[in-house]
Specification:
The complex is a heterodimer of chains A (158) and B (288). Chain A is an alpha+beta fold and 158 residues long. Chain A contains five helices and five strands, in the order ββαβββαααα. The chains are: A alpha+beta (158), B alpha+beta (288). At the A-B interface, strand 4, helix 3 and helix 4 of A face helix 2 and helix 6 of B.
């Protein structure tokens, strides 16, 4: 097995690590870097729990190999607020009860982060289409849509 | 649920990529967006010895408008197609189809070359390539060739590519004047593969259809053109009786499977309903 050394920026910190080519980005983040905020659900690109931003675009970290991302910049849920200092999107999730078990939440937050940066999200239809790749098995979608709607309002108020 | 080990090679040019494929003698897979390949690796449905990563080949992601065709580079991400003003203006049926392709995070990474090469029988892009009579350019160490979409899709997950060939470009001829289009799809959930999908174009001249194109997905082992229905429509105006006949011709021309998601009968019924809607939409747009 040929291993490779990659340089990768995660949440603004540069890392140099040696990886097996088959190591998924999700497992690199969790296992190699210890950033366990990214959750791994289905491991085949269906559930969206492992969504992170790669050079600013939301992607499934279970469908990327860490070795591919030499020189890339990754953002994970750890780049948002902290427990005592939530960012406005996380605030909105808390205020609107947009999570129960929390398993899907990191993926929801990172997808929502991508959506908030790039899209008008003027209608609920647009919000729902944007979130459609993230599954929540607590069936909290109404609350998640409400949270994102509130985050859109907070964004325009800024 | 973890991929098997493989040798990882990064190609920085098309020439390097096809040389790596030729060297591997059929043991390599091309890694483009990976949105179909990596799930198959994670499930261990595939055990390629080598992955040739083409993501770092410069100049392979573009949408160029020529005089007669729109040329799309093989590494163009779905999201680029979805949001391209050129595609929206020139190939609106493709824009409409892109809204049905998976979800944002998949569209940010998945590529047109990958989708065509993977050739899922229920996927939108292969069906649209077939509908619009696209040509697919491929390179190999021996040189290049172009393949008509009609000759490209051989069966489920099977295309007319040799082991040392790489798709480099897809050329979509522009729509003729006075051409309307329709796209209709039903899937179990937003972004899922189609239970049935239909794309149409109708070109109208002096009140009659001079060219009819109907492509369907999800109802056969590969995307197919409903050539029987196309022939019925030619040289006529679309009226309710003709629409009924065309719908029935589409239904008899497909060979759907039953699976967990829908029965063959239901898919056959659905493809007729969707054809009717997509033909009506195309007729209305052509006659504006």
């Amino acid at each position: 097995m040929t291993v490779r050394t990659i340089k990768i920026t995660v949440n603004g910190t540069s890392y140099e690590r040696t990886v097996e080519p088959r190591l998924l980005l999700a497992d690199f983040l969790r296992g190699t870097l210890g950033l366990t905020g990214t959750h791994v659900g289905c491991e085949h690109g269906v559930c969206g729990a492992c969504t992170v931003l790669v050079d600013g675009d939301s992607m499934r970290s279970c469908l990327l190999f860490a070795v591919q991302l030499d020189g890339c910049s990754i953002e994970t849920v750890e780049s948002l607020g902290t427990l005592n200092d939530l960012n406005p999107l996380q605030e909105a999730f808390r205020d609107h009860h947009a999570l129960q078990c929390g398993f899907c939440t990191p993926g929801m937050l990172m997808t929502a982060t991508d959506l908030l940066r790039k899209y008008p999200l003027a209608t609920d239809e647009e919000i729902r289409a944007g979130l459609s790749g993230n599954l929540c098995r607590c069936t909290g979608y109404e609350h998640i849509v409400a949270a994102l709607r509130a985050a859109v309002a907070a964004r325009s108020a800024q | 649920m973890k991929p098997p080990p493989f040798e990882y090679r990064v190609a920085k040019s098309v020439e390097a990529a096809v040389a790596m494929l030729a060297d591997a003698g059929g043991e390599a897979k091309v890694l483009a967006g990976g949105q179909s390949l990596v799930p198959m690796l994670n499930f261990r449905l595939l055990w390629p010895a080598i992955l040739v990563d083409i993501n770092r080949i410069p100049g392979l992601a573009y949408i160029n408008e020529g005089a007669n065709a729109i040329r799309v580079g093989a590494l163009t991400r779905h999201h680029q197609l979805e949001t391209s003003p050129v595609i929206a203006a020139q190939l609106p049926v493709l824009s409409a189809a892109m809204a049905h392709v998976a979800h944002l995070a998949i569209r940010n990474r998945g590529t047109i070359g990958g989708s065509l090469t993977h050739a899922d029988p229920a996927a939108e892009l292969p069906m649209i390539a077939l509908l619009l009579d696209a040509t697919i350019s491929v390179s190999s160490p021996k040189g290049g060739r172009t393949i008509a979409a009609r000759d490209f899709f051989l069966g489920a997950l099977s295309v007319a590519l040799e082991a040392d060939e790489l798709v480099t470009e897809v050329a979509f001829p522009k729509l003729p004047d006075r051409t309307g289009w329709g796209f209709e799809e039903v899937s179990r959930r937003h972004g899922d593969f189609a239970l049935a999908a239909v794309g149409t174009t109708l070109t109208v001249s002096a009140g009659k259809i001079s060219q009819a194109r109907i492509a369907v997905a999800g109802v056969d082992e590969r995307p197919i053109r409903a050539s029987g229905a196309e022939a019925l429509l030619r040289d006529s105006a679309l009226d309710p009786k003709l629409l009924d006949a065309a719908r029935d011709a589409v239904r008899t021309g497909v060979n759907p499977n039953s699976d967990l998601h829908a029965s063959a009968d239901y898919r056959r019924h659905l493809v007729g309903v969707l054809s009717e809607r997509a033909l009506n939409a195309a007729w209305q747009r052509a006659n504006v």
